[in-house]
Structures are given as C-alpha cells and as structure tokens.
Amino acid sequence: MSSRSTILLTRDGEHWYNDCSEPLTGIDEKPYKNVITLEFSKKNIRIDLNDNEDLVISIINPNCEIYDVLSKLAKDLRGY
C-alpha cells in the first residue's frame, strides 16, 4: 500500500500528493495533517529564486497540463 495520496498527476509526470509517512500532527490530533509534496517537470517551470527563505517557481509553458489546472483553479477562486 502506498503512503501517497495523489492530489494531481499530469501527463508530464508532475505529481502533487499527501504523504502519510510524513505526519505533521500527532495521530490523535484533529484534523490529522500530512506533508504535501509538489513535484514539477523542469520543462514546464523556471526557478526564479532559491535562497534561505524562499523558493519561487514560475510556470513558463502555457500549453502544459499544470498551467491549465492552476489557471482553472485561479478562475474558480476569483470567480472570473
């Protein structure tokens, strides 16, 4: 049985998932929370900043699946 619960999986192998093998809260705490991992394909992103405090990633391929998913999510959250 996998410890990963997929949130998003694209054709480019980008995988966003919860991983129950990395708990962030105690097992008796409600709500129980796990690590969320965001894996990107380097052909679709650019790393703009990676210093001691921040990691900034820009999606640079408007034709990739992750761009479509996040564009739709942004539209749904904004309402336009």
How is this structure best summarized?
The protein is built from one helix and five strands; from the N terminus they run βββββα. The protein has 80 residues and is an alpha+beta fold. It is globular and about 40 Å long.
Structural features, described:
The structure is a single chain. This protein is an alpha+beta fold and 80 residues long. The protein has one domain. Helices cover 18% and strands 40% of the residues. The strands form 2 sheets. Strands 1-2-3 form a 3-stranded antiparallel sheet, with no helix packed on it. A two-stranded antiparallel ribbon has the order 4-5. The protein is globular, with a radius of gyration of 15 Å. The chain starts with a strand and ends with a helix. 4% of the residues are buried. The mean pLDDT is 94.
